[in-house]
Amino acid sequence: MTTRRIMLLGGAGLALAACGGTTTTQRAAPAPATRTLATALASEPSVERFVDAANRTQATEMLNGAGIYTVFAPTDSGWGDIPVSLREDLFPTNAPADSVRGRAVINAHIVEGLHPLSEFSGRTVTLTTQNGNRIVVDGSDPNRVTVRSLRDGGYGPGSALAFWGASTIARADIPASNGIVHIVDKPVLP
Question: With 50 as the cut, is the pLDDT of residue 98 above it?
Fold first, then answer.
């Protein structure tokens, strides 16, 4: 008798669930509740150098925290375009990373708030990064969305680069429980 009641109650619950309730929009890649930005980035093989730099500058503490952020993470090939002398100065191979300037480079790729790709569609948006620099996300071209630094304040890696240019969002809207990741083809340097 007990087994029969459980089966009936279970069947009734399934019928109720099928008949009504709320509908949800399915996302292509839902983020598990415990998948933070740091975890989402670590699971992306194309941004290992950025993840290593974030780990070495303790930026992962923020990316694992409670705040909501959007990260513009450069690909490994884009990261490799940073001059070797600057990379070695900020993130030496066999020594600790420069805790101030190295962290500034990572923070130049992080903005507060949730900014999905749809927010930039058909328009230009200016955002302030975690290091105080402003970046411009330009979605006016329907075929590509670019990100560039305004270089008008904040703290950057120094004056080693006279001109860097815009990055292009290569992959967008990678979800996390505390934000979203956009993968860009090169760093957004101040």
Answer: yes
Token pair 């990379």 in the structure block, residue: 87
SS3 per residue for 39-85: HHHHCCHHHHHHHHHHHHCCCHHHHCCCCCEEEEEECHHHHCCCCHH
Instruction: Report d(CA 188, CA 65) in Å as an integer.
Output: 23
CA–CA gap between residue 146 and residue 37 (Å, rounded): 21
Q: Is the dihedral of CA 59, 64, 66, 72 positive or negative?
A: positive
CA torsion sign for 85, 187, 111, 72 is negative
Output the pTM of the full model: 0.78
Task: Measure the CA angle with vertex 169, ends 167 and 170; round to 5°.
Answer: 115
119: left (phi over 0), alpha (psi -120 to 50) or beta: alpha
Helix (H, G, I), strand (E, B) or coil at 18: helix
